[in-house]
Design brief:
Elements (H helix, E strand, L loop, with lengths): L12 E4 L5 H7 L4 E6 L3 H13 L4 E5 L5 H15 L4 E4 L14 H22 L8 E5 L13 H21 L5 E7 L14 H6 L9 H12 L10 E4 L6
Parallel strand pairs: 1-2, 1-4, 2-3, 4-5, 5-6, 6-7
Helix pairs in contact: 1-7, 3-4, 4-5
Protein name: SDR family oxidoreductase
Family: Belongs to the short-chain dehydrogenases/reductases (SDR) family.
Keywords: Oxidoreductase
Length: 247
Protein backbone atom coordinates (compact mmCIF):
# COMPACT_ATOMS: atom_id res chain seq x y z
CA UNK A 1 0.00 0.00 0.00
CA UNK A 2 1.05 3.59 -0.35
CA UNK A 3 -0.42 4.54 3.06
CA UNK A 4 1.85 5.60 5.93
CA UNK A 5 1.14 2.27 7.67
CA UNK A 6 3.06 0.54 4.92
CA UNK A 7 6.30 2.19 6.05
CA UNK A 8 6.38 -0.09 9.12
CA UNK A 9 7.57 -2.91 6.86
CA UNK A 10 10.13 -0.86 4.93
CA UNK A 11 13.33 -2.83 4.46
CA UNK A 12 11.72 -6.12 5.44
CA UNK A 13 11.76 -9.03 3.00
CA UNK A 14 8.51 -10.90 2.44
CA UNK A 15 7.37 -13.99 0.57
CA UNK A 16 3.64 -14.20 -0.24
CA UNK A 17 2.08 -17.24 -1.88
CA UNK A 18 -0.75 -16.58 -4.31
CA UNK A 19 0.02 -12.88 -4.61
CA UNK A 20 -1.28 -12.09 -8.07
CA UNK A 21 -4.70 -10.81 -6.98
CA UNK A 22 -7.14 -10.31 -4.13
CA UNK A 23 -5.86 -10.63 -0.59
CA UNK A 24 -2.40 -11.78 -1.65
CA UNK A 25 -1.86 -8.75 -3.87
CA UNK A 26 -3.08 -6.43 -1.10
CA UNK A 27 -0.63 -8.03 1.35
CA UNK A 28 2.19 -7.66 -1.17
CA UNK A 29 1.54 -3.92 -1.34
CA UNK A 30 2.00 -3.41 2.42
CA UNK A 31 5.51 -1.98 2.27
CA UNK A 32 8.09 -4.78 2.26
CA UNK A 33 10.36 -5.98 -0.50
CA UNK A 34 8.35 -8.94 -1.69
CA UNK A 35 8.33 -12.09 -3.77
CA UNK A 36 4.92 -13.40 -4.81
CA UNK A 37 3.99 -16.72 -6.34
CA UNK A 38 1.39 -17.49 -8.96
CA UNK A 39 0.13 -20.71 -10.51
CA UNK A 40 -1.22 -19.42 -13.83
CA UNK A 41 -1.89 -15.65 -13.70
CA UNK A 42 1.52 -14.53 -14.91
CA UNK A 43 0.44 -11.16 -16.29
CA UNK A 44 -1.42 -10.24 -13.11
CA UNK A 45 1.49 -11.29 -10.89
CA UNK A 46 4.02 -9.38 -12.96
CA UNK A 47 1.70 -6.38 -12.86
CA UNK A 48 1.67 -6.44 -9.06
CA UNK A 49 5.45 -6.82 -8.96
CA UNK A 50 5.91 -3.96 -11.41
CA UNK A 51 3.66 -1.72 -9.33
CA UNK A 52 5.75 -2.44 -6.23
CA UNK A 53 9.01 -1.79 -8.08
CA UNK A 54 7.71 1.57 -9.26
CA UNK A 55 7.33 2.50 -5.59
CA UNK A 56 11.06 1.90 -5.13
CA UNK A 57 10.92 -1.55 -3.55
CA UNK A 58 12.26 -4.88 -4.77
CA UNK A 59 9.73 -7.38 -6.12
CA UNK A 60 9.70 -10.77 -7.80
CA UNK A 61 6.87 -12.73 -9.40
CA UNK A 62 7.66 -16.45 -9.39
CA UNK A 63 5.68 -19.26 -11.02
CA UNK A 64 5.08 -21.96 -8.41
CA UNK A 65 2.08 -24.27 -8.04
CA UNK A 66 1.52 -24.74 -4.31
CA UNK A 67 0.63 -28.38 -4.91
CA UNK A 68 4.29 -29.02 -5.74
CA UNK A 69 6.54 -29.06 -2.68
CA UNK A 70 9.59 -28.89 -4.94
CA UNK A 71 8.34 -25.84 -6.85
CA UNK A 72 7.35 -24.00 -3.68
CA UNK A 73 10.65 -24.69 -1.93
CA UNK A 74 12.58 -23.64 -5.03
CA UNK A 75 10.63 -20.37 -5.19
CA UNK A 76 11.48 -19.60 -1.57
CA UNK A 77 15.14 -20.37 -2.17
CA UNK A 78 15.13 -18.10 -5.21
CA UNK A 79 13.54 -15.22 -3.30
CA UNK A 80 15.91 -15.64 -0.37
CA UNK A 81 18.87 -15.61 -2.75
CA UNK A 82 17.66 -12.43 -4.41
CA UNK A 83 16.87 -10.61 -1.17
CA UNK A 84 19.55 -12.06 1.10
CA UNK A 85 16.97 -13.75 3.33
CA UNK A 86 13.28 -13.69 4.20
CA UNK A 87 11.78 -11.96 7.23
CA UNK A 88 8.07 -12.53 6.58
CA UNK A 89 6.25 -15.54 5.15
CA UNK A 90 2.57 -15.17 4.29
CA UNK A 91 0.84 -18.41 3.34
CA UNK A 92 -2.05 -17.04 1.33
CA UNK A 93 -2.58 -19.34 -1.67
CA UNK A 94 -5.75 -21.36 -1.35
CA UNK A 95 -8.69 -22.96 -3.10
CA UNK A 96 -12.37 -23.04 -2.19
CA UNK A 97 -13.75 -26.50 -2.95
CA UNK A 98 -17.33 -26.81 -1.74
CA UNK A 99 -20.09 -29.37 -2.06
CA UNK A 100 -22.10 -31.84 -0.01
CA UNK A 101 -20.18 -34.84 1.24
CA UNK A 102 -21.94 -37.26 -1.10
CA UNK A 103 -21.07 -35.13 -4.13
CA UNK A 104 -17.63 -33.70 -3.34
CA UNK A 105 -14.91 -35.67 -5.09
CA UNK A 106 -12.10 -37.16 -3.05
CA UNK A 107 -9.71 -35.39 -5.42
CA UNK A 108 -11.27 -32.05 -4.43
CA UNK A 109 -10.84 -32.89 -0.75
CA UNK A 110 -7.23 -33.89 -1.35
CA UNK A 111 -6.55 -30.70 -3.31
CA UNK A 112 -7.99 -28.61 -0.45
CA UNK A 113 -5.61 -30.19 2.02
CA UNK A 114 -2.68 -30.05 -0.40
CA UNK A 115 -2.97 -26.34 -1.15
CA UNK A 116 -4.60 -24.94 2.00
CA UNK A 117 -2.71 -27.00 4.61
CA UNK A 118 0.19 -29.04 3.24
CA UNK A 119 1.67 -26.20 1.19
CA UNK A 120 1.93 -23.85 4.20
CA UNK A 121 3.78 -26.60 6.09
CA UNK A 122 6.13 -27.04 3.13
CA UNK A 123 6.69 -23.29 2.95
CA UNK A 124 7.51 -23.03 6.64
CA UNK A 125 10.09 -25.83 6.39
CA UNK A 126 11.61 -24.23 3.30
CA UNK A 127 11.79 -20.71 4.74
CA UNK A 128 13.40 -21.53 8.07
CA UNK A 129 17.00 -21.74 6.76
CA UNK A 130 16.51 -18.20 5.43
CA UNK A 131 14.68 -16.65 8.42
CA UNK A 132 16.31 -15.43 11.60
CA UNK A 133 15.17 -14.03 14.92
CA UNK A 134 12.31 -11.58 14.48
CA UNK A 135 10.83 -13.58 11.61
CA UNK A 136 7.08 -13.62 11.12
CA UNK A 137 4.96 -16.42 9.67
CA UNK A 138 1.31 -15.63 8.93
CA UNK A 139 -1.33 -17.89 7.47
CA UNK A 140 -4.44 -16.66 5.72
CA UNK A 141 -7.22 -18.82 7.12
CA UNK A 142 -10.97 -18.22 7.02
CA UNK A 143 -13.74 -17.44 9.46
CA UNK A 144 -15.20 -20.73 8.18
CA UNK A 145 -12.49 -22.44 10.20
CA UNK A 146 -14.53 -21.74 13.32
CA UNK A 147 -18.10 -21.78 12.04
CA UNK A 148 -19.96 -23.57 9.24
CA UNK A 149 -23.04 -21.45 8.47
CA UNK A 150 -24.16 -23.54 5.50
CA UNK A 151 -23.80 -27.07 4.09
CA UNK A 152 -20.99 -28.13 1.79
CA UNK A 153 -18.04 -26.63 3.66
CA UNK A 154 -16.44 -29.76 5.12
CA UNK A 155 -13.30 -29.84 2.96
CA UNK A 156 -12.62 -26.11 3.06
CA UNK A 157 -13.41 -25.65 6.76
CA UNK A 158 -11.29 -28.65 7.71
CA UNK A 159 -8.29 -27.34 5.76
CA UNK A 160 -8.50 -23.86 7.27
CA UNK A 161 -9.13 -25.13 10.80
CA UNK A 162 -6.10 -27.37 10.35
CA UNK A 163 -4.02 -24.39 9.23
CA UNK A 164 -4.95 -22.39 12.33
CA UNK A 165 -4.16 -25.27 14.68
CA UNK A 166 -0.92 -26.05 12.86
CA UNK A 167 0.16 -22.43 13.26
CA UNK A 168 -0.59 -22.51 16.98
CA UNK A 169 1.62 -25.58 17.30
CA UNK A 170 4.34 -24.03 15.15
CA UNK A 171 4.37 -21.03 17.46
CA UNK A 172 5.63 -23.39 20.17
CA UNK A 173 8.23 -24.91 17.84
CA UNK A 174 9.57 -21.58 16.63
CA UNK A 175 9.18 -19.36 19.68
CA UNK A 176 12.67 -20.25 20.95
CA UNK A 177 14.06 -18.94 17.64
CA UNK A 178 12.28 -15.61 18.08
CA UNK A 179 9.86 -16.33 15.21
CA UNK A 180 6.14 -15.64 15.65
CA UNK A 181 3.40 -17.67 13.92
CA UNK A 182 -0.18 -16.45 13.60
CA UNK A 183 -3.31 -16.76 11.47
CA UNK A 184 -5.63 -14.13 10.00
CA UNK A 185 -9.19 -15.35 9.38
CA UNK A 186 -10.93 -13.25 6.72
CA UNK A 187 -14.67 -13.33 6.33
CA UNK A 188 -16.50 -12.55 3.10
CA UNK A 189 -14.01 -10.44 1.17
CA UNK A 190 -14.49 -8.76 -2.20
CA UNK A 191 -12.25 -10.81 -4.51
CA UNK A 192 -12.57 -12.51 -7.88
CA UNK A 193 -13.46 -15.71 -6.06
CA UNK A 194 -16.22 -14.08 -3.99
CA UNK A 195 -17.24 -10.69 -5.45
CA UNK A 196 -19.24 -8.25 -3.34
CA UNK A 197 -21.82 -8.00 -6.12
CA UNK A 198 -22.14 -11.78 -6.57
CA UNK A 199 -25.33 -13.80 -6.28
CA UNK A 200 -24.47 -15.06 -2.79
CA UNK A 201 -23.21 -11.74 -1.43
CA UNK A 202 -26.48 -10.47 0.15
CA UNK A 203 -26.80 -13.58 2.32
CA UNK A 204 -23.18 -13.23 3.42
CA UNK A 205 -23.60 -9.55 4.28
CA UNK A 206 -26.71 -10.37 6.29
CA UNK A 207 -24.60 -12.56 8.60
CA UNK A 208 -22.18 -9.74 9.48
CA UNK A 209 -22.53 -7.46 12.49
CA UNK A 210 -21.38 -4.44 10.47
CA UNK A 211 -23.58 -5.16 7.46
CA UNK A 212 -20.87 -5.03 4.82
CA UNK A 213 -18.42 -7.04 2.75
CA UNK A 214 -14.74 -6.96 3.57
CA UNK A 215 -11.97 -5.53 1.40
CA UNK A 216 -8.61 -7.16 0.68
CA UNK A 217 -6.98 -4.11 2.28
CA UNK A 218 -8.75 -4.90 5.57
CA UNK A 219 -7.07 -8.30 5.69
CA UNK A 220 -3.74 -6.90 4.56
CA UNK A 221 -3.80 -4.38 7.41
CA UNK A 222 -4.10 -7.21 9.93
CA UNK A 223 -1.23 -9.05 8.27
CA UNK A 224 0.88 -5.89 8.34
CA UNK A 225 0.20 -5.50 12.06
CA UNK A 226 1.31 -9.08 12.78
CA UNK A 227 4.39 -8.59 10.59
CA UNK A 228 5.25 -5.22 12.08
CA UNK A 229 7.01 -3.95 15.20
CA UNK A 230 3.84 -3.71 17.27
CA UNK A 231 3.22 -7.46 17.36
CA UNK A 232 6.45 -8.80 18.81
CA UNK A 233 4.54 -10.46 21.68
CA UNK A 234 1.72 -11.87 19.54
CA UNK A 235 2.11 -15.51 18.53
CA UNK A 236 0.05 -18.68 18.39
CA UNK A 237 -3.21 -16.83 17.88
CA UNK A 238 -5.82 -16.05 15.23
CA UNK A 239 -7.39 -12.71 14.31
CA UNK A 240 -10.86 -12.59 12.76
CA UNK A 241 -11.30 -9.92 10.06
CA UNK A 242 -14.90 -10.72 9.11
CA UNK A 243 -17.01 -7.66 9.93
CA UNK A 244 -18.42 -9.56 12.89
CA UNK A 245 -19.84 -12.50 10.94
CA UNK A 246 -18.69 -14.89 13.67
CA UNK A 247 -19.61 -12.61 16.57
Amino acid sequence: MTTPAGTALAGRRAFVTGGSRGIGAAVAREGADVAITYAAARDAAEGVAGEIERLGRRALAIAADSRSAEALAAAIDRAAGAFGGIDILVNNAGIFAVGPVDALAIDDFDASLAINLRAPFVAVKAVLPHMGEGGRIIGIGSNLATQAPQPGLAAYAASKAGLAMMNRALARDLGPRGITVNTVHPGSTDTDMNPADGDHAPAQVARTALGRFGRPADVAAAVAYLAGPGATAVTGTSILVDNGANA
